Prior knowledge:
By secondary structure, this protein is mainly beta. It has 1 helix and 30 strands. The strands form 5 sheets. It has an 8-stranded parallel sheet with strand order 8-9-12-15-18-21-25-28, covered by helices on one side. Strands 11, 14, 17, 20, 23, 24, 27 and 30 form an 8-stranded parallel sheet that branches. Strands 10-13-16-19-22-26-29 form a 7-stranded parallel sheet, with no helix packed on it. Strand 6 and strand 7 form a beta hairpin. The mean pLDDT is 86.
Amino acid sequence: PPSTELTSVFSTADSARFSWSPGDSSLAYNWFIVPANASPDSANYIQSGTVSADSVTITGLDTLVSYDFYLADVCLLDTSTNLVGPFKAGLKGLVSVGGSNPVFADGDELIDALAERGLRSPTTIELRNGTYQGPIVIPAGATDAQRTLEIRGESRDGVVLTHSGGGQRYATLTVASPYVTVRNLTVENTGGTDAWGVHFTDDTKLDSLIDCDIRVDSNATFDAIGVVVSGSPTSETSSGGNDSIYVGNCFVIGGEKNIHVEGDGGFPNVGSGHTIENSELVLADDHYIEADDLVGFVIRNNVMRDVRSDFEDNVTITDVDAI
Length: 323
């Protein structure tokens, strides 16, 4: 049989490394790239070659061009029966999800593409109006300073990410990679417990949540939280190496706490540079904001209103320096 499990890791904007699981009795591997959606004919080859190892690095790619990659095993039999592909190049530019004529039909297709293909360059994902079922995870390693990602809703109340909590991930939306901005949409979690809206998980940095509505159960009293910064998908008090998470111009309603920000295990190893500003925090059971083990924490120009019967403090802070 032909080689399988074709994957790709992009090292720079103009190069790509492809690898695969070898097929039985493969002697070598012919590879070629063609323009995206072109037929795999030799007349369309942009680059091609033969390797004996189960990977190849291709250089000299144009950052403004999209490509498809194909692989053909060299076996004792006719190689024409062993073609694998296309494997599409990493995402870039404006990518639409849902609605009419999208690049991806739904959130599942999008997340699969992020995990398998990553990004080639700065990318904006436009979620068309509709409901997208969670949990949705932006995987670790999907982004970096050269391959930033913005997830933008068509309208703030028209795009809804939803989940009912529980399981191995409590959050509807988990951001596990740096340099990610989530903007202009609604995230809800309908679970009564073990239910989070947005989770910035371990070792994320320079991520942002802007112009969003975050809604969790307004009657929940335990482990229902709108926004969580922590190192575990099921524990808001688990330390993590998160830095410079920004929440701005958001509406957060319901839960035991509206927002929980956890640092990195105590001084001197703390999370730094987090900011919550210009947001409306509503109907928390215990606290609007809870924070631990941080330095340089900014809370500015927020409205906190509508307390519940068990309410304790607007903001509770432990081991936070330079607030």
